What does this fold into?
Amino acid sequence: MRGNLGTSRHSPWRGRARDPRGRFNPSQVASRILFSLVLVAGVVNAASGGREPANLTSGTDQQFSPFKPCVPPLGLGYNRWTNARPPGGPSARWSHAMAYDVQSERTILYGGQPSTGPMSNETWAYDFATNGWQDMNPSARPSGREHPGIAYDAQSDRLILFGGGNHLTSVYSNETWAYDFETNTWTNMSPPSPPSRRYDFGMVYDSRADRVILFGGAGPTQNNETWAYDFETNAWTRLTPTRSPAPRQAHSMAYDSESDRVLLFGGAYTRDNETWAYDFNANAWTRMNPPTHPTGRWGARMAYDPRADRVVLFGGWDGSYSDETWAYDFNANSWTNLNPPSTPGGLEAPGLVYDSCSRRLVLFGGFRGPSNPQPYSNETWWYRFQGAPPVIFQ
Ligand SMILES: [Ca+2]
Ligand SMILES: [Ca+2]
Ligand SMILES: [Ca+2]
It folds into this structure.
């Protein structure tokens, strides 16, 4: 069941038992009934002191919480970036790892390169509902590092972190760690046959396959390997598709849950402008060749908005530090420059996630460039996309 909900209190589509094309949609009615059952089950579960089962598919609006209203501030509109200006938060940095814990409704940040001092080993959690960052300060943690990969395994309710390193010392990791926000615990998983040491790769969670998918990276040599990690069996598997994107690092990746594809854009060092899609079921990479696309760049970030069924790309370095916001529709194989009226400014390697509770992208940090008086950002920004009505998953 790939449920839709156009029914939450935030939805402009509330009360319309029709799909965006105006047809009556019986599956949406069924979804609403199911959501009611899920909500009742959740309340019962909470009352019994249990934790909500993490059986919700990542990337859909099905995770709307019955426990905590994630009420977004009013009047922010669509297609605009808003500086959230939370009180406090992580220090300025770039190349940190960021992912959204759907079950706990927190954006989790790990590591990165601060403006001064060693690579960070901090774990922070951002709550949109309170616009507050919390330094989690867990007792055990991965060592400090930049450009690790992180993805939220929704089925297991764990953030999976892999690799990362330090380009100043050329030390790279191939450790696999799992973080549980509820217990504030990092666990070194020590799987038997992980990918080689690397940093600056792409890593996303394929919710249908229940696998974390990794592509490329450098350690320091660039590669074009595709790997899958299963938390339950603690096993990395090297996938060997017949065709792959060329070796690269600093590319952008996101998982389109409606189309069940891992999407990739760009990368270094050629300032690549290719768009690729990976289908785990077919173990196949396909080059998409869209008619228009962002300029070649590295260090951009992408996140998938399931309501709009669009991957949103922000920033990167394309010869200068870009502040562009683009949307990619896999079904139409089309990139659109969204040209929002305000932006966070040009940034390379910020953190970017889709917060399914507030239905906004959350961005933190990034590198503004060496000539900027404040080269590293410590700003938190929100972005709400509406380029299309919410998608009704069938
Ligand atoms: Ca959690
Ligand atoms: Ca899992
Ligand atoms: Ca799609």
Q: What stands out?
A: Residues 209 and 281 are 8 Å apart (CA to CA). The longest strand covers residues 97-101. The mean pLDDT is 84.
